[in-house]
Design brief:
With about 140 residues, this protein is mainly α. It has helices at about 5-15, 20-35, 40-55, 60-75, 75-85, 100-105, 110-115, 120-125, 130-140. Belongs to the adaptor complexes large subunit family.
Length: about 140
């Protein structure tokens, strides 16, 4: 994004007022911007790191800021390799269970049926030791 520094300045100005999730994302985005454009983002990254380490109440934001700060000050090459590394996209597994079977499995959530992803009557059986036979034997 060509004007990333201008867009990030909006979040940098209100950094302490933002939610923790936005603070974490802003922190990461500013560090990425610095690694890609060190000359233009030097002051912004220093401002955000100072604010995050001194004025933030959230330990996660503070810790990430300290980690970035130490990484940038000791080895910018390693920082680039870590922060700008390619990450595979998160994919959700496609369910292969039909909606009707899924509805039946929800009714049997506390049984092995939910583990096997099959309705209980498909693996319990109806023979001598099936569920019906056990119930009849216990009733006698």
């Amino acid at each position: 994004i060509d004007n990333a520094d201008e867009l990030l300045n909006i979040f940098v100005e209100t950094f302490t007022e933002e939610s923790y999730a936005v603070q974490l994302q802003t922190l990461t985005a500013v560090v990425k911007l610095f690694l890609k454009k060190p000359d233009s983002a030097q002051s912004v990254v220093q401002r955000v790191l100072n604010t995050a380490t001194k004025d933030c109440d959230n330990a996660d934001v503070r810790d990430r800021a300290y980690i970035y700060w130490r990484l940038l000050s000791t080895d910018p090459g390693a920082a680039k390799a870590v922060v700008l590394a390619h990450r595979p996209p998160i994919t959700l597994p496609q369910t292969t269970v039909s909606p009707a079977v899924l509805e039946e499995l929800l009714g049997e959530i506390g049984s092995l049926a939910s583990v096997y992803h099959k309705p209980a009557d498909t693996f319990i059986g109806q023979g001598k030791y099936g569920a019906d036979a056990v119930q009849k034997a216990s009733a006698k």
